[in-house]
Amino acid sequence: MAKGLHADRRLQDSDSSSVRVTKWRIVRFRITLLPAFVIECLKLIGVHMPISLLFTGHMIDVPDRPEPRFPASLEGAAGARIAEAVTPYAARSASGERALGFASGAQGGDILFHEQCRAQGIDTVIVLPFAPEVFVGTSVQGVGSDWEQRFWELWNATPEARREGMNLPVSDDAYGACNTRLLELARNNGDVHLIALWDGKGGDGPGGTADLVSRIQATDTPDIFSPASLGTGN
Questions:
Q1: Residue 183 in this model has a pLDDT that exceeds 70
Q2: CA proximity to 39, closest of 25, 50, 24, 55
Q3: 51-230 CATH, one of 3.40.50.450, 2.40.50.140, 1.10.530.10, 3.40.50.150
Q4: Tens digits of per-residue pLDDT, 118-127?
């Protein structure tokens, strides 16, 4: 690797006009270099970096939840607020700064995020801790409405290269591992912008919204909003 980089320096020194060749050679080394180092190199030579829209958010409350957090009546308002959050990145994608969304696939915030991104022409990556059939039982069913149908529509419309079922054993720790994987993929893709539908409190268990918010070091100001900020809903 060091030999290749040394050759690139000689090329750049001997012919400063060969900027496009130098860019191409640095991109070629991306498979062997640390992603963060490559990203910084590309920024220095003026290459537009991809933007990773990393989402985390609450699920819709189950009917018997003791303390309401994200009631079903706020679904429409949440979808509109998420759409507002991703709209600027759809415009930037059109100008060459490609955006790619990252989220899991739970009912509520995750599914709304995927839907709003794709409605605006932003592709998204879905990561699940379990096989999709198992995940539906743990994180999609149980609140009524058409969440299960919407999940399968998203999953089936996603190319295999942009969806991942980790096939972990069902446990609380698996959700934390899923957050780790989402964060890894987002950072490897480009600059990370966090969008979070979060009430600011600790989660109901490991691997929830609070867990991912606490781990991330975004490259800009995160967009965090609570269900309570959305008003009374429908």
A1: yes
A2: 50
A3: 3.40.50.450
A4: 999 999 999 9
